[in-house]
Amino acid sequence: MHPQPPRRTTHAFGTPKNRLVYDRWGRYGRPVVLLHGLFYDRTMWWPVAAELGDTCSVIAVDLPGHGQSAARGENDVDGLARDLATLVNGLDLHRAPVLVGHGEGALLAGAFADAYATRALLTFDEPAAEPPESPEQHRAAADLAGVPAPYRQFAVARWDGAVLRSYSRWFSGCQEPRAGKRPCFPHLRSPARFAATVRDLV
């Protein structure tokens, strides 16, 4: 019996000043790019990526200033979409990706889809028109009641005022969500069901 390669591998792309760190599952098939929201990181996608198995090539990216990716002075959504396109093209999968965006990651996913070939776009928990003013306000907005206890560790926000300032321009084009709508992390409520939805888009 031959040893199996690890299902998740970690990689870095770019120079030290604009480095993006990402995890990858699967080596073949259509790329699926998973983008987290402000104050989270790529680990929020681990339960869903594990459910997707080897049916596609899954990439979960740390946005600049999050997780292990380098912080940038100011984050331009179009420039970051360009960096993301270069990363995806460098994987040599030769297929348009499926983009999945959570929170502010939905804005990046939309900018990518507007500029580059995209198979499908799935967004959820889209941000409000105004950024949160404090860690307490940000935490109060999260609805974790429906997230099973083992998955709540993947929905832990790490507040950082410098990161908030570097993304401040992203909020100028946001639409205010419907009254009563709160981030509810559907991908963590049932990772298997969410992965099935993504698989249908592949």
TrEMBL record:
Keyword rRNA processing: no
Statement: the UniProt record of this protein carries the keyword Hydrolase: yes
Boundaries of every AB hydrolase-1 domain copy: 32-185
Entry-linked Pfam families: Abhydrolase_6
SUPFAM superfamilies on file: alpha/beta-Hydrolases (SSF53474)
InterPro entries on file: AB_hydrolase_1, AB_hydrolase_fold, AB_hydrolase_sf
UniProt KW keywords: Hydrolase
MF annotations from Gene Ontology: hydrolase activity
Gene3D superfamilies found in the cross-reference section: alpha/beta hydrolase
Name of this chain's protein: Alpha/beta fold hydrolase
Organism this protein belongs to: Actinoplanes sandaracinus
